[in-house]
Task: inverse folding
């Protein structure tokens, strides 16, 4: 089909006249908003700003030259991303001041029994009073605190003021309807209900909450400090101080007077706000769309996993075919019969993949991959075992030698363990070491197309066997009594023969005989008394 079309700019602008007329009306309505006379610069963004006729209409209405200092496309995308991040609780961005302007008059209507000048609105017959809450040009976001004297439940209506501009957009003027209930009774006084009406940054109106504040007075005892010094310095009634009365002493203790005062108390009671009508879809529709979204996310995951499974099948075919062919990495590890069988399986799977399996399910791809791996994994394992057996044997012999040296106990650090048990550790280490060495020698004579008699998994089993046998013996705790005896021997070492001989040759110390003339201990203890 040849969709080529040749046209002139004049022809296209003639086709765009209805759109240009709507753009012109929009610019004229923007100039009617209060504060539009302060406009000094007009910047145009978006893809349509590149069209010459669009620029001409905007410049003609505003009477100012247009500026295009910003990127027309990126500016819109970045602005939407920043605004979405500001509204989302999952992201933290710099606090940008975004101030929007309201375009239409928004009213608040309700029914009042005490209304002196009731009104009648044919669109909302259940209200008899209304007030303007938002005017054209008011800054958004905005919060309004409204007070209603009510003792029973009441309803609030938020709606647009009828105008040609609003009726062109929608025939329904109602923005939202709410019921304020569960108003507490405060005795004889009629409670004042405070309602918070919020115009969000996304230009949606909602009643955030309603509450009643209860206030009362209570008697409360307050302690006041009494200044004794000032009372003492006060002159007598006749103007003379009494010399006989001493001044009070300065002490840390201060006397207090108790006084009863009235203090105001308050308590907040939250009312129940029920949404009767709100802009947007009903709750059932929102739930339905959420379930649809989750099913789409699950479907996307399934498509991604299916594509990955298909790629795995395709990669395995090309990779394995290259490795088992002549000159490949696995060519020496598979005999001719198994090679032909695997190549036949790879070719059959490849034909299926680009034919009937082009749009197969995930499970079908997984099944085909497992069928090929059933023939290819033994070949890969033979190659991997021969690469890993050398380092595994070297590590095993090193660890076994360390255990054997501990069993020999040449440094005497394990003196408390019986020599028979230590010798059993040495014998066990020699036994497993001899077995591994003999089995390792058989690998050289085994063809690469066959499994080797010794694998890293078998070596790990033998290593664990030696560890389970030797560890309980080598980690046997040291006896506590022998340790104490050893410590006492270090503190009081035995005396040598020379020290014993010197002790015998040393005469015993002579004791003084008491002198009868000297005062006895009893006389020393006696005191002269008057």
Result:
């Amino acid at each position: 089909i040849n969709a080529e079309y040749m046209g002139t700019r004049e022809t296209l602008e003639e086709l765009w006249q209805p759109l240009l007329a709507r753009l012109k009306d929009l610019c004229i309505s923007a100039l009617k908003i209060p504060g539009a006379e302060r406009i000094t610069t007009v910047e145009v963004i978006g893809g349509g700003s590149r069209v010459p006729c669009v620029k001409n209409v905007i410049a003609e209405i505003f009477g100012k030259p247009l500026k295009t200092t910003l990127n027309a496309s990126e500016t819109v995308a970045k602005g939407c991303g920043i605004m979405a991040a500001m509204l989302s609780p999952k992201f933290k961005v710099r606090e940008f001041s975004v101030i929007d302007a309201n375009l239409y008059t928004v009213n608040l209507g309700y029914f009042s029994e005490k209304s002196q000048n009731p009104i009648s609105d044919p669109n909302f017959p259940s209200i008899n009073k209304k007030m303007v809450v938002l005017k054209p040009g008011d800054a958004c976001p905005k919060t309004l605190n409204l007070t209603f004297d009510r003792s029973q439940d009441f309803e609030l209506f938020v709606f647009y003021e009828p105008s040609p501009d609003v009726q062109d957009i929608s025939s329904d003027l109602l923005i939202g309807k709410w019921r304020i209930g569960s108003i507490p009774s405060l005795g004889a006084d009629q409670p004042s209900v405070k309602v918070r009406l919020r115009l969000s940054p996304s230009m949606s109106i909602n009643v955030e909450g309603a509450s009643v504040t209860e206030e009362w007075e209570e008697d409360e005892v307050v302690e006041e400090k009494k200044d004794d010094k000032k009372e003492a310095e006060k002159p007598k009634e006749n103007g003379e101080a009494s010399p006989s009365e001493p001044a009070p002493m300065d002490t840390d203790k201060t006397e207090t007077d108790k006084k009863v005062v009235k203090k105001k108390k308050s308590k907040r009671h939250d009312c129940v706000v029920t949404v009767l009508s709100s802009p947007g879809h009903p709750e059932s529709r929102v739930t339905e769309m959420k379930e649809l979204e989750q099913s789409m996310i699950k479907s996307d995951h399934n498509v991604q996993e299916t594509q990955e499974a298909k790629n795995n099948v395709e990669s395995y075919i090309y990779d394995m075919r290259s490795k088992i062919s002549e000159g490949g990495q696995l060519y020496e590890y598979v005999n001719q019969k198994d090679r032909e069988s695997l190549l036949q399986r790879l070719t059959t799977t490849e034909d299926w993949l680009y034919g009937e399996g082009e749009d197969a399910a995930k499970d079908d791809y997984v099944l085909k991959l497992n069928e090929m791996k059933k023939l290819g994994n033994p070949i890969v394992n033979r190659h991997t075992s021969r690469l890993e057996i050398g380092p595994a044997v070297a590590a095993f012999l090193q660890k076994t030698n360390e255990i054997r040296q501990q069993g020999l106990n040449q440094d005497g650090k394990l003196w408390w363990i019986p020599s028979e048990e230590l010798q059993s550790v040495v014998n066990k280490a020699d036994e497993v070491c001899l077995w591994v060495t003999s089995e390792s020698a058989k690998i050289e004579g085994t063809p690469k197309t066959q499994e080797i008699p010794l694998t890293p998994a078998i070596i790990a089993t033998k290593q664990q066997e030696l560890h389970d046998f030797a560890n309980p013996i080598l980690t046997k705790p040291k006896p506590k009594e022998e340790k104490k005896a050893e410590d006492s021997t270090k503190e009081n070492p035995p005396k040598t023969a020379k020290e014993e001989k010197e002790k015998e040759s040393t005469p015993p110390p002579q004791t003084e005989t008491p002198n009868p003339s000297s005062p006895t201990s009893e006389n020393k203890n006696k005191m002269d008394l008057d």
Notes: The longest strand covers residues 205-226. Confidence is low (pLDDT under 50) at residues 237-244, 510-530. The chain is about 45% helix and 20% strand.
